[in-house]
Structure formats: C-alpha cells, structure tokens
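Query form — protein Sensor histidine kinase

QUESTION: What is the three-dimensional structure of this chain?
INPUT:
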Amino acid sequence: MKLILLYSLTILLPVIIIAFVMPSYYVKIITAETEKLTNATLVGLTENIQTYLDDLERVTVSPYTNNDVMNSLKQKARGLNSPIDNYSKYKADYTLYHTLPSLLVNLRKDILGTLLVAIDGSVYYNDSSSQLTEPRNDYPYTEQNWYREAVAANGRVSFVDVHPQDYLKLPAVPDVFSVARLIKDPDSKQPLAVIMADADTIVLDRIVRQVSVNVNSIVTITDKDQRLIYSNTHLSREVLNQFLKNPAKIDFNQQSYVAVSREIPTSSWKITVWLSKAELASKVHWMRLTGAVFAVGGLVLTFFLFFAYSRTLLTPFKEMIGVMRQVQLGNMNKRFSVRGQDEIAQLGNVLNRMISQLDELITNEYLTKLKLRNAEFRALQSQVHPHFLYNTLNAFVSLNRKGEHALLERAILSLSGMLRYFLTSHDTCSLEEEFSSIQKYGELMSMRFSDRLEITITLAPELASIRIPKLLLQPLVENAIIHGVEPCEHPCKVEVSAEMLPSINNSESFVIRIADNGIGFNTFEQIDDQHIGLSNVKERLALAFPDKHEFQLDSSLGHGTTITITISLNNEELAQ
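ANSWER: The structure tokens for Sensor histidine kinase are given below.
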C-alpha cells in the first residue's frame, strides 16, 4: 500500500494534473480573459446603440421646437371641449400635414418614419424615404401597448420593443423598434399627442456586426421586461427563456454558453454576448490531446515497471508473512526458503533462527508451567483432606458425647470407605463418582443429625462422565451442613444437583447447585477461616476451567445459602 501511495503521489497524480487539471485551468483563464475583452467590446457597442437611441429620442422632441405645430396640437385638444371654426381647423391640419414633416426630416436613413397621434384621434405619418405612405384610419392606436407606455411615461421617452408596422398601409409589414413620447402643453401640462419614431432593426444588426469577439457567439438585445429586441441568431421564445433564466446551464445546439452582459442606461435595454464554451475549450484542445497521450503512455510504462519491481520486492515478504501465520497457528516446523544473499535473505535467516529459538523457548516454558500447575493443583487438593477430617472427627466427638456408640461405629465404617476413595492417586473424577462420594458423606451426616437433616442429590445422566477435580464439591456440601444446618434449630434440607443448560449459539454448558435452607450469612462481610473451602474451590475451578466457568454465591440471614457453578463444555467433553 505504501508503494502504491508513493506511485500515486510521484507518477499518477502529476500525470492527472498535467493531462486534465492544467487544460481545465487554462480554459478558465481563457474564458476569463475572453469575458474581459468581450466586456470591453460591449462598452463601445453600448455607446453606439445609445447614440442611435439618442437620435431617435431627439426626433420625438421635434414638435416642441415649432410654435405653429404646438399651437395646432393645442387647437385640436381644445376642439374636444368646444367647437372651433373651420378656418382654425383647416389651419391646424395644414400645419401638421406640411410644417410637421419638415421638422421630422433627419439624415439617418435607418429611421423609417415618424407617427403622430393627436389627442383628438387624428393621425399623421412622415415617411423618411419620401414615399406617400398613409396610416390606417381604422387602426386602434390608443389601445396599443406603445401608446399606453408613452402615456404612462408622462412626457419621458418610452422605448418600444420590436413590433410590426401594421398601422400603415403597406404591402408587406416589416418589424421595427421605436421610441415614443407623450407631447404635453408646456403651460397647462395637458396631453396633446403621442409621437413615435420607427427604426429598422437592421441598424442594430449593423452596429453589432461592427464589433467582433474571439469566439463564435450569440448577441441578444432585450428590453427591461426581458423581451427580445434583437438577436443575430434565430432564437425561439423557449430558447430565449432558457438563456435568460439560467445562463450557467444553457444547452443550445448541443453547446453550453457563458454570458457577458451590459445595460444601456437610458433605455434599460440589456446587450448580452453568449460565448460558446466548446469553442473556448477548443483553444486548448492540443494541450488536452498532448496531455492525454503523455498520460496514457506514461501510465502504461510506469505501471509495468512498478508492477514488475513491486512483485519482486513484495513476494519474499508475503512468503514471510505466510510462515509467520503458520507459526501463529502452532506449526513450529515451518521455515522461510532463503534465496540469494541480499538484505531480504538476511532477514529470512534471522526469521528462521527466531522461529527455532521460539520453539525451544515455548517447549521449555510449557514444561515448566505444566509442572508448576500440577504442583499447585496437588497442593490445593491436599488441603481438602485435613479440612474434611477435621469436620468429620468433630462429628464423631458429638456422637460419642451423646452415647450413640452403635451409630458412631457405623459412621467410622463409612468414613473408612470414603478415605479409600480420597486417597486414590487420580486428580480428577467423574461427576458420577463425585456425587457418589457426596451421597456417602450425606449418609454419614444424616446419622449425626438424625431427622434434622435431609439431603437430596440429583445428577442428569448425560453429565455422569464429565470430568472435574476430585473433591471439588465436597467442601461446599460440608460448609452447607456445618455452617448452615448445624446452628439451625429447625429441620433443614440440602439439595445437590447437576443439569444441562439450553444451548446458546451452539455452546453447551451445565450448572451445579448446592442449596440449603439453613441460617445463611451476610455476603457483604469478609469470609473468615471457617469458609476456607470456598476459596479452595474457586482456585481449583480457575485451574481446571480457566475462562470457562462462573461461580455465584447467594445467601441471606435466615433464608439459607445457594451456590451456583456454571461450566462451559467443549464438543470433546460431551463426546466422552
């Protein structure tokens, strides 16, 4: 893993950076620089469009420069409230038909014409191309959006988005964009007319084509309500909405775009240049291709070199690990096959010598521990005999004092039979033999206590052959009788039982219980020398069943004592 990490840091990571990260970084740099250049270009483009809109705006203020035109518009406005004579009406119409067109003459051919709608509903149109174009009389001028927007602007200029010139009598209706304004009486501030100057959309195309950007782009001009005024590429309404809604995620003609925008101050129009990301990325295509070729070739070459070297280096170590695992499982005869005389061979020789020394050390340590354990086991077992004899002889003294010589003789004969069992050379016995010895001891104690003592012994047949340390349970039964039953004034019962427990996770165990209903004792107080049998039993259990047993003692004053020993079994022990 360290070699792989080293390979990744020194070879793989730099190759990935060179082949993929660097081109992406340069794409970001080129994109940022292109955006800056495009933004600078938009400054000039915005000024050109602003200049053109200013020309259109100046056309809409032309009526204010001629008193005759303004008086004529006032006459028409007064005619709404009171009748005027025919001469005045004729004079006003003459001025608007002849004097007004001379005011609206301009040098820009791309300004198509000017429409004036007086407050009384009369309409006048001046065609910049000197053609006799007439407005439609049946057209609802006051219901048009551009008319309402001009009235709402209340004398300020209103910029109208692209709309058809359907208010003129033309064989083909073109699309235009316009600038409209409400003409008001300078004195009374009353509305007199709405004037609108129309411009051909081709002028926007000319202005846009005068500038260029580094990549293929889409240029759009939208009004304050995000309605499309101009686009150098045909865009449907759905595509335009996609462009305006989420510029960072645009998919038009299977390409993504970056938006650079600038607003025209007076009109609140927005000019947006949409730069193609694919074309920006193509500028570093050679870098990506070179990086990819270098990355693939370098990775293939270095991988084979790394694989060959790492295999040669790691194979001996894997063999050493396999040898050590065999030694861990107890196979002390396993050795590493040494090849060559390099550092790995030296390490292999040291490993083989260590295994040999470890085998010798374990053997010696095992024999020493085994002898020490047997010595401790016999020492603990030897403590049982004096303890038992002491309690038994005290019982004989009690029988002699009572004058029960016949019962004493029977007890002595029972004792001699038990001693023959005690003095056998075996360190362990079966549960059946142990329970038989306890049965004889119980008979011996029943002679002493007569009807004051009842002993019940129960052994499950499947546990008869289980091996335990000899005289393991004898001290516990003695303590139950001597310390629990003897001081008690009422008849008592001692129960000794052994039974299997339900299997849990395929683990078998059995439990041994020694219970009496004698006087009991306080388990929180320190156990004195009279209960030396308890500590003896615990130590012998720890030697015979390490980590496989539980010893539990429950006792309370006046309610007796219960000792529970739980021992886990191996499959081999169950099969015996």
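ADDITIONAL NOTE: The radius of gyration is 57 Å.
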